[in-house]
């Protein structure tokens, strides 16, 4: 399913040329990059015809990019490049910009070798980086920013998901309903850094949501949405009677997003989901949360604003559905010994279970089944058949590569983040909810010296696939200086006891 709530990246490339070099060198090399990109990735790339030598060229190139509808750009040093005009492109362009440089072509069959068409862009990238720093201009710089046409095409392709995340955040509004539940202050964090990221936030009462939900009672769209849910659930539709209420709730959120996004293009939610939600609304919202996440509209549990933000970044980067899980419980020793030990390269302390009540979308789960929230059922209706606690989607998460990720604000309003790559193991959890057995190398040390020591809450966004490289690039571009990862053995964390 294509995500409807994330940006489409419209990319353009601008070649630059220092006036003491032949302009044709940059022009021809730009054409080669565009040709290689379109052939390798079968994707559009707007080719700016103006080669920038001076500031007036820079303005002309910007007009070309804007008229073409570009929201991300590549500044390509086909030769050494003019330092001021090329950095001003990044300053004035309204979107993320990547810089890359041309490598020299083969020369042994040329009479003069490198005498006539040497570009010196390897040197020019140094001056570009220096000028960007002097002017305080943000730009994406690949790991090794010089390359052949094919290599630069690969760099551009890697830039696209990072650009998508930056564009999305610039146009994002987080809508929340309700305060955090009592004793769940772990999800509380200052919102000031959101504004520094360019994100807007709208905080509402649970009563606002309840009133909007009641206004959708009898909505003529409910039967069609129920039919859609029935088709999606198939044999997993074990509690069909709750679907009309869930459909009514989904329509409530969609309509609220449409009417409250204002000048923003994209919306995510951070919603209260217990304990009074069940007694007043008459269901748990988990299934709807997962359905919306599959469309690119994450709905975080327990009013976790930074959890919703993290999910959205993950969706922009991966291009697929994400989920938000508790870093929840250890894997029992007997399960580890029977199903993991000797079969996978992990210790028991590298593994844990990621869990939430039932908020996963069907596309990330094996044989999902509509069920009830067992924990809430114990307290709210312990001696009766589930009623107001119905609405979870239960099942083990599909095995495969994942990246556990969170962008968060510390208590003193400083942004910090982590990204840890690992996998969901093909091992039965023997448990309930949206759940999986996760394995991350050196998880025990990461748990102690990042999650606990840096005061992260228990929620983490699960991004499907290994996306640490792109996530790091996005965080670096956003100015997040504290970025943690699961360090390998022998690479100590700050304040890690070296004598243990």
Number of E strands: 18
- Structural class from helices and strands? alpha/beta
User: Unreliable stretches, pLDDT < 50, 5 or more residues?
Assistant: none
Beta content: 15-25%
Spatial order of strands in the largest sheet: 10-11-16-15-14-17
Basic shape: globular
Distance between the termini: 48 Å
- The amount of helix comes to 25-40%
Mind summarizing the main beta sheet? 6 strands, antiparallel, barrel
Whole-number count of domains: 2
Which key phrases capture this entry?
alpha/beta, 38% helix, 500 residues, globular, 20% strand, Rossmann fold
Please tell me about this protein's structure.
- The structure is a single chain.
- With about 500 residues, the chain is of the alpha/beta class.
- It folds into two domains: about 10-165, Rossmann fold, CATH 3.40.50; about 170-485, no CATH class.
- The chain contains 16 helices and 18 strands.
- It has helices at about 25-40, 55-65, 85-90, 120-135, 150-170, 190-195, 205-215, 220-235, 245-260, 275-280, 285-295, 305-320, 335-340, 375-380, 445-450, 470-480; strands spanning about 10-15, 45, 70-75, 95-100, 145, 170-175, 200-205, 265-270, 300, 320-330, 350-355, 370, 390-395, 400-410, 415-425, 435-440, 460-465, 480-485.
- A six-stranded antiparallel beta barrel has the order 10-11-16-15-14-17, surrounded by four helices. A five-stranded parallel sheet has the order 2-1-3-4-5, sandwiched between helices. A four-stranded parallel sheet has the order 7-6-8-9.
- The longest helix has 22 residues, at about 150-170.
- The two termini are about 50 Å apart.
- The model has no long low-confidence stretch (mean pLDDT about 95).
